[in-house]
Amino acid sequence: MLASNAVGSGPPLVLVNGYAATKDDWDPTFLDSLGSFASVLCPDNAGVGDSPATATLSVASMAEDVLALMDARGIASAPVAGWSMGGFVAQVMAARAPERVEALVLLSTDGGGPGAVRSTDEVAAALVDHGGTPRDRATRLLGLLFPPSLATGIDAQFGDVVAAARAALDPDVLTAQERAMDAWHAERSDGRLASIACPVLVAAGSEDVVIPPENAALLAAALPGASEPTVFEGGGHAFMAQEPARLAQLIEEFRYGVAPQT
User: Fold this and answer.
1) N or C: which end of the chain has fewer CB within 10 A?
2) Domains in the chain, ordered, with CATH?
3) Nearest Cα to 7, choosing from 36, 46, 27?
4) pLDDT tens-digit profile of 48-71?
5) Rounded to two decimals, what is the model's pTM?
């Protein structure tokens, strides 16, 4: 069973994290903002954080793990939000168990398949580079998650914390996640995307180098329940840490019909 954190009060919202990230890695202001209107369930993926590893790992198996956690928590259905690789997991949940997923929130992610717009080879190599000290890896990661104008300051403030988190990760699990992401982009996605009928919010950062923001428009066009994507100007891959309150308000308005404040 996946380990998880729970934050806030209100109707359930499931929040699935991405590659190499755990339930403890979400921006606290983003979680607090979501928790003002929802009970947010934040699972680890298998093999990271406090969750046990599995013999095989795929995007589909991670989706099944989250559905099993919902069963254990008595959540029959809920909106599911996924960031980056977590967005892959959320899409599979919606395609395979539509009765469980009331709505999708897809953040800094893509629809998979050969048609997805991929990062440059340099960025892709840096993302999965396990070399150097944990502090080296933290600096490298933060340089990918945030625009250059912010990355240096964030690294100075939080790099040691990120390094400690990176040091705790099992390289074999990271390699399994990387293979799962490779398979996601190798398999055809048009049938899966066309089958997802729930309402969908797609959002991305304009400066995302890990999953380029062009994917937001591709996703919105392929998903029947999606409206025009929202692109956060100046946002990197982890744009929810740059504008946590604004993104949370967007999610609240999308899911619960709350008018934005002026």
Assistant:
1) C
2) 4-256 (3.40.50.1820)
3) 36
4) 999 999 999 999 999 999 999 999
5) 0.96
